[in-house]
Input
Amino acid sequence: MVRGMVQCTCHTGYRLLEDGRSCQDVNECAEEGYCSQGCTNSEGGFQCWCEQGYELRPDKRSCKALGPEPVLLFANRIDIRQVLPHRSEYTLLLNNLENAIALDFHHSKELVFWSDVTLDRIMRANLNGSNVEEVVSTGLESPGGLAIDWIHDKLYWTDSGTSRIEVANLDGTHRKVLLWQNLEKPRAIALHPMEGTIYWTDWGNTPRIEYSNMDGSNRRIIADTHLFWPNGLTIDYAGHRMYWVDAKHHVIERADLDGRNRKAVISQGLPHPFAITVFEDSLYWTDWHTKSINSANKFTGKNQEIIRNKLHFPMDIHTLHPQRQPAAGRNRCGANNGGCTHLCLPSSKDYTCACPTGFRKTSSHACAQSLDKFLLFARRMDIRRISFDTDDLSDDVIPLADVRSAVALDWDSKDDYVYWTDVSTDSISRAKWDGSSQEVVVDTSLESPAGLAIDWVTNKLYWTDAGTDRIEVSNTDGTMRTVLIWENLDRPRDIVVDPVGGFMYWTDWGASPKIERAGMDASNRLVIISSNLTWPNGLAIDYESQRLYWADAGMKTIEYASLDGNNRKVLIGSNLPHPFGLTLYGERIYWTDWQAKSIQSADRRTGQARETLQDNLENLMDIHVFHRHRPPVRTACQVGNGGCSHLCLLAPLPKGYSCTCPTGINLQSDGKTCSPGMTSFLIFARRTDIRMVSLDIPYFADVVISVNVTMKNTIAIGVDPREGKVYWSDSTLRKISRAALDGSQFEDIITTGLLTTDGLAVDAIGRKIYWTDTGTNRIEVGNLDGSMRKVLVWQNLDSPRAIALYHEMGYMYWTDWGENAKLERSGMDGSGRVVLISNNLGWPNGLAVDKAGSQLLWADAHTERIEAADLNGANRRTLLSPVQHPYGLTLLDSYIYWTDWQTRSIHRADKDTGANVILVRANLPGLMDIQAVDRARPLGFNKCGVRNGGCSHLCLPHPTGFSCACPTGIQLKRDEQTCDSSPETYLLFSSRASIRRISLDTSDHTDVHIPVPELNNVISLDYDSVDGKIYYTDVFLDVIRRSDLNGSNMETVIGQGLKTTDGLAVDWVARNLYWTDTGRNTIEVARLDGSSRKVLINNSLDEPRAIAVFPKKGYLFWTDWGHIAKIERANLDGSERKILINTDLGWPNGLTLDYDTRRIYWVDAHLDRIESCDLNGKLRQVLVSQVSHPFALTQQDRWIYWTDWQTKSIQRVDKYSGRNKETVLANVEGLMDIIVVSPQRQTGTNACGVNNGGCTHLCFARASDFVCACPDEPDGRPCSTIPGVVPPGPEPTRVSERSQTPPGRVDTSTTKPLTSLEAVEGNCSDKDARRGLCTHANEAVLATMGEGLHVSYIIGGLLSILFILLLIAALIIYRHNKSKFTDPGLGNLTYSNPSYRTSTQEVKIEAIPKPTMYNQLCYKKELSYHSDSFSSSLF
Output
């Protein structure tokens, strides 16, 4: 203060005026950002306030959003992530995306939406990343922005490719083009549902920011200066402002919601901002250049910081928080969608009912249910429509699947169907105009279907095929297809039909371009235009003026002429770069232009008043106008199909119509009825289908047999002309099947025991089917239904392929293309086999018998020849050479026909000279076998006569007559006519997914599959001779099952509580089932039906595997290949357990008993040998010392049989000498257990064999007595361990007390008195003990022949126990000393038995250290059979 002067000051909230003495109120609210949201000024003060959903912070100026912590949600091209802005915590929401750009969310529904500009899709998912689904999948080109209306549940998006803004429901339904005019490249979009407004940026030639109501009304530009690339856009709902980024000007700007008060917030440090969001007082944006997310103060642009950098490619960004989608706004549409039938769209004050694109309004609230008029056009990858019911003329993609290259179109308003051809999939399809009910109509024998026309009067589909050079017709569902015109066509293109006049017209732009006309039945064919044409494309008929219009892309004109070709005139001759599709409607003509990429129209009479309906459309193809005003036409076909049995086709007057038959079938003499089917035809396999080519008609056209089954690799084929059935083999499915020639009556006839069935022949006279199998090297025969199957030839076959029959002569011929290729012959019963030709053969594929010419014909793909010889192989000559790669060969009349892999074609030549070679059908990849059939030809005389030659089973011809035969493995009886139903003695073995038998009654040793269902990984087997049942374990399902010996009546015996059941044994006397469980290290027993289950042994077991029983002796034997391998024995109740062998053992796998010589045989898969000993473990001897990897073994007569993993074979040796080793069956994958079924095998009896020994549950025979036992789990039946005693059930009201005296008295003369085990309870009376009331449920009680208790028994028992304890102690000391002195080179190595739960291909026989947890290895892997494809590289 200066002396003499006074300085004035003002209170807070006031400022000093210029006079230095007066104070004036400060308006704090005028300062930008002084308050976050609301501000109220007062005299000398102010007050900040917050919008609903926010609260004032302690500083009394800034507002905090109520609710959870905000999360930034952003698209990162390949994923969508979220980051916490203040902690930089970074989590993945969705990954493996293609190109995610735009993004938004719906907070209350917990949904996230995004657009993908690579897939051209809009997707959505739950906010936790689950349930990803498509929302919009058609008609998008570059959807760069999207926004969610969370109040009215609508999805809005921009598309800079289509230059549109569209709206739809959140699930994509009721999609509507909202804005389409004066849009160039719309990008960012933001909604203000509370105000009912929509904001968007457009970075086209005149960049701008616009807004409109959310129903598209009241559109205005709010900024169009100083803009270049306005990318991101966001609305600050609490601050009532909008913010946007401009990537070219490197700026973030803001303005009021009406565009006023525009101001730059940040104008430095913004290399390439893309998207922006706002929350509370901060802005957040993504930057392409820095690949980061940044933030700054929204008022000042200060406090800039990087939230996250080093991102992949940050795109759109949003703040995920409830206050970014405040629920305070009013839903203008209310609870009932505003009463609208489709879309309810809000506006600034109210709402508008709107209709999906193209649908007209029928009232203020309702839309039409269907379209009446629309332009239909194809664009290769999609088919679109432009509605004429509305003014916007926006194109709408019809939602169709798998449209790859659509070319031709037509429609039928009667059923609302749209039809199209696809030259990529070579198919004709149809769907309703809305995309529903899509189906393929024709998809076979098409090569380039370029033209399509619907006869809407008789419901016929006409099409041209520029690949096959044909015009064909069918019903509109594709049935009754037939070829109309096949001659003198050269790349036919468009086709139109005139049901009024009965004519069809088509363009042909081959070497001599022309426009032709014919009746719709192909009659009266005529060229009507042939000059001044280059590429005549689209055709259209004007019914009113009787004119034909066409577009010529070479002449660059649209012309017309009268329907007869006269009065030709050019309608449009300028500015037509490349017209393609053409159609007429009303007074206008419409066309597509490839080069102009547009759809245009003009006056149909003058060509004037040209308009462009749509432009910037690539790949434009055909075009039509769908409407509902086609003129009604009365025709003769409408009454009873014109009397035609099949097709009634319109024709010009006076005829009016004619009847036609499906391809390959002739019309009968009445001119109305078709023959039942083809009489003379070729039939051939094409891997995935079977086709026929009729020889009854003057052209070659293949027709697919429509069997309702998926074929994988169909190779061989045969026909039964009598019943009209085709038989085929599929080497991938490993089946032989049959069906009627019309595709009905499909059935599999052979489903087991096939590997690669290369050849197949039907003996229609003898009603048999013969086939060769290159995999099994067999030739087999069976009845036509697959029954009575028999192996005819099994020796000295290498790779048998083609097979041919001559029933009348009784001969069967086949080719063998193995190492020594040959051509052989035998009787049709396999007798009299001779090699006819064995030199100069390479790959003899096809084979045919020329009965008329008495010669053999064959095709050799290696020597590239088709050769012939007489029926004895003499007079060999070359018929054709070179042929590139012939495969199938057949003949009919004077021609031979063959398939060729190289040319992918079927060829024909004269059978005697090989001359006059012609192409029958081309462009058929995958060609295999072929047969020529003439059903009119008489079959010939059946050698077996009318009574099957008196044979009970098979009657097979041979050159001098016939012989009776039995199915494989069954011997013919002495009468040489009859057979048993099954073999008497046979091997039964498992190979994972099959159980098979090999008869020992016959010498062929051929395996026959037992048709047991649901086999997955079968390991162990046994059988019960009493009931005729097979028992087996399946370690994939962890079950024990049984079935009849013929495979029927399969049922599960044990279905729970199993881990790895490796061994199985049936006690056929006591009716018990024993098994080992390696997973649980137990041996268990149950009754044969699975009841009364009990654990017998569960201690001192390491890896128990094989198990066998000797009921007559009361013994149980098993192997254990654990840490200390051993073979043990016990009584059948598990008592008196004894180690028989525990030295010099590796992996004792299989175990079997010779009941006659009373010896044990086992295989050792580590020491690779087969050994035996007596029942006490003595007299041990090595039978065979060098076997590869034996798994299981069995014994019958003088032979020991075993399965071997390494050699994949079943082998046998003499059980006495170990010599005479033979391979019984070779090349079997996954071999497991093997047993013998024989009437001599399961003999002998014991005390349990009569009335279960009097036991209530389990009866166990022992050497000199038997015991009764109870199951581990009570089964509800009273259990007694005393034979003949059935205790009563407990009283229901006094459970805790002992049961009272049972009703009835025990007859002591038949009951076996108890031994000293009676005294197990000190307080148990003799009376109670005799009734079985003192023993525990799981204790077995011994039954002996004595009478009463005796002191000598007690003394003897105690001495026995003492002796056993001394023996055990001595054994432990011996083992301990032995382990010190064993060879260290051996002692340190342990071995692991290769797991049989994986493919046996993985077995390694080398020594590998055995892991301590080996028994826990997960090797329960399902066996996968890799089907060998029929590879041409073999040839």
Observations:
- The radius of gyration is 45 Å.
- The first strand starts at residue 14 and ends at 16.
- Confidence is low (pLDDT under 50) at residues 1290-1353, 1374-1435.
